[in-house]
Design goal:
Length: about 180
């Protein structure tokens, strides 16, 4: 498999991970919201208003926004040989997956992202290793892109959720008469 092909798989792996969240988040929150509030009140105070109030359609809209940006950046990185930039995106995604692993350990049970996090981790580690072995990335530049990408991913998450809330309002007003 070429480096470009390996890089091109990132949007696919990202979406496989996001599908678990799209499918499982609402039912998991419905079942575990009260327990989340009891065990982790500070987390619940931030998570439940953000995610619990969104419909699956609105949450999927946020994921779509993230997917489009990741796909555009991935294919720009392939087209222009921006391997360090792409490796930074990969490290940001890897960090995201590791956060999910930590969340699951703290929860001590299934969380609606752990199965695909565990499945995506080997791809991330292999891809990063393959890029390093091929010599197309440098540790310093990749580290800088990794920090920048991680910050941008979390800022974009805020934007994506804000857009999702607007989308939710638009759905409510546009399709309210159909109910």
């Amino acid at each position: 498999m070429t480096i470009d092909m390996l890089m091109g798989l990132l949007p696919v792996v990202f979406m496989l991970h996001e599908f678990e969240e799209i499918i499982m988040l609402k039912p998991w929150l419905a079942k575990n919201g009260p327990e989340l509030e009891r065990r982790f009140p500070a987390v619940a105070a931030r998570v439940l208003p953000l995610y619990g109030s969104l419909s699956t359609s609105a949450f999927t809209f946020a994921v779509l926004e993230e997917f489009l940006i990741l796909t555009a950046l991935t294919y720009a990185a392939i087209a222009f040989g921006l391997h360090d930039l792409w490796a930074g995106l990969l490290v940001a995604f890897l960090f995201h997956l590791l956060v999910h692993v930590g969340q699951t350990i703290l929860w001590r049970g299934y969380c609606p992202f752990i199965v695909t996090s565990l499945l995506a981790l080997p791809y991330c580690l292999y891809a990063l290793s393959a890029l390093a072995r091929s010599g197309v990335i440098s540790p310093g530049t990749t580290a800088i892109w990794s920090v920048a990408a991680t910050v941008l991913v979390y800022l974009n998450l805020w934007l994506a959720l804000r857009l999702a809330r607007r989308f939710e309002a638009w759905i409510g007003s546009t399709f309210a008469t159909l109910r």
